[in-house]
Amino acid sequence: MIAIINYEAGNLASVSNALKRLDEEHIITDKQDELNQADGIIFPGVGHAEPAMKSLQKNELDTWLKQTQKPVLGICLGMQLFFESSEEGDSKGLGVIPGRLKKFDSSKAKVPHMGWNTFDNISDHPIAENLSEKEYFYYVHSFYAPVNDFTVASCHYIEDFSAIVARNNFVGVQFHPEKSGKVGSLLLQNFLQFVN
Amino acid sequence: MLAKRIIPCLDIKDGRTVKGVNFEGLRDAGDPVELARRYSNEGADELVFLDITATKEKRKTLVDLVSKIALEIDIPFTVGGGIGSTDQIAEILHAGADKVSLNSAIVRNPNLINEAAAQFGSQCIVAAVDAKRIDNQWVVFISGGSKNTGKDALEWIQEVEERGAGEILLTSMDQDGTKEGFDLELLQKVNEFTTIPIIASGGAGSKKHCIDAIQKGNADAVLAASIFHFQEIAISDLKQELETAEIPVRKTN
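The joint structure predicted for all components is written out below.
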């Protein structure tokens, strides 16, 4: 069973719908005892980093997430919150992946980076199985994680940035697999594969 | 590389699609969910649903429809038409829409953009601007194009961006329905100063028009209704032609 973390910054309906389309049993919860029952965690997110972290802290979900050994998939802002810090309101993240998020330079191109984009480079990782540089995923974001030691796939918009990151049980995707058509469900299935 | 987006627009009334959709092979041409699925399968990059009923009694019908679409469709979609408060925005987003399009309400109460952007994030706030050329300027119209606000469209677009809109849905009222091409001059003018994505709308009649909107008008996305509804242009053919013109597009097959 998958648990989708319920906090005030989630696109919960979209992620839940994507799991329904895959016939995957799931719950939406902000309760630690329910999270403890789950086999895998999806940590979605849209909006701003600072209020999102505050909302997580309310139920001590930040602490829970940092120590969990369960597979966690962070989506968009969820992925960004894996990092230590952000230029966005100078907020702190969970710090399960080292690094600091940057803001796209809007003097160079339009920000947010909004729409469908491809990978530049993909390394071997179960989350990226059967995906190639040809596939398009849907992105909406103004902040990005620079390419780092934990980058599984990179994307290019203004700068090269991390499209997929992975460290231990934490996997994060900057794009929205739940809104990325067939290849999006393929990625979600890859995640479910190593949960189950 | 970031792809240019092709966006079919569906007008909704009382939970049904309107404007004589003429699609072969559809069981029910009035069913927005079936039409949306069709477009999604053909390679549409996003969808826009504009509710033209927009009366309070019908609000629930729209929210129910949004939930159904969100369950079936795995590409992003925007919902607009008569949305006037952060509560209504919350309702539509929680039902599963990715973005809301705001039009008349933000002209009446520009602060709604700031409030909505702060509460939900700029990425889901689309400012729809209906512009009409009068003398040597473009003027903003609201209430389905029936009311002249006297506002300069370029200044208004600058303002909505500063207030936190994440995207502009820019409709040329002069070109809308003509099938004679987009207002390229308007698109160029807006792109000179804007730093958020622009969806070009109004006037699509051929593939060439869409190419021009992107190459000459610098549009980030192209929206059209009737050319898709009447199958005059298949989305896959349009994308093929864009690719030939060296425009990056998302190919799905």
